[in-house]
Write a structure and sequence with these properties.
The structure is a homodimer of 138-residue chains. The first copy, chain A, has 138 residues and is an alpha+beta fold. In chain A, the strands form two sheets. In chain A, strands 1-3-2 form a three-stranded antiparallel β-sheet. Chain A has a three-stranded mixed β-sheet with strand order 5-4-7, with no helix packed on it. Chain A contains four helices and seven strands; from the N terminus they run ααβααββββββ. The mean pLDDT of chain A is 90. At the A-B interface, β6 and β7 of A face β6 and β7 of B. β7 of chain A pairs antiparallel with β7 of chain B, so a sheet runs across the interface. The structure holds a DNA duplex (25 and 25 nucleotides).
Amino acid sequence: MVTPYTDADAVALLHRHGINPTTQRVMITRVLFERGVHMAADDVFRIVNADDNQVSKATVYNTLGLLAEKGAIRQVIADPVKVFYDPNTSPHHHLYDEGTGELTDIDAIDVNVTGLPPLPLGASLQGVDVIVRFRQKK
Amino acid sequence: MVTPYTDADAVALLHRHGINPTTQRVMITRVLFERGVHMAADDVFRIVNADDNQVSKATVYNTLGLLAEKGAIRQVIADPVKVFYDPNTSPHHHLYDEGTGELTDIDAIDVNVTGLPPLPLGASLQGVDVIVRFRQKK
DNA sequence: CTTAATGCAAAGGCTTTGCAGAGAC
DNA sequence: GTCTCTGCAAAGCCTTTGCATTAAG
């Protein structure tokens, strides 16, 4: 499903995270937030360039890295081969199909993680990832 | 810390998982289980070849993959760049330092994950990974 | 002798980097 | 004019693969 997400929305989001909203960054942001689902860098690259726009691979990688670093999106490490980028930054978890490499969301509403130990001194928590890995029975 | 872990222990472990215990496989198994900590394939490769033994990179990768597939060790996907292999297959979770890439264990004894949704039909659970990501304050 | 495992080197996929050119203010 | 961003291509890193060689029973 494609949620309405305008250039103005993207610009606002970028500003909110202290990122200079250039043409390419806005395009990349829109691709992610319109669809609202995590994708790999390569997916973003392909989609951005689908409708004749031109954004280089380097810019896609750099921008995704920047967005993640600034907290506008979230990196999801679940696949041994590639990183997913998730526009959903609210607490939620992931279901990972080891057969297909497909990643889907689990709402965090009902999920509770308790009993975690305290962090090392001077450390700031970046997030708690819960990844449920499954495989289709053959 | 290096726990006593003999060739015979390694052979027994391999047998238990239906793996033919060849010289190289025993060496690799010992490296992991003596130290008892997760390491990347490259670490294993370096250690195995440290004391003049000769095991090729391909064999290290193949063996680690085989051990993981057979359930003798566990793959940990926490670093965007490389896969860790963990000789500890009992339930436990991980603390990941985004700055250094260092991975440490969290006992699962006190950790509880509740409220997970049911799996898709015909799926078998491979595991639930909890990864606590932190970063040193600068 | 037959089957399985190993080693080497090359290839592959994802990501990062260096640097020149283009764009923004 | 200065500073930032972009694009291209090359390089980097981890991992896999193909195939000939070697070991095992």
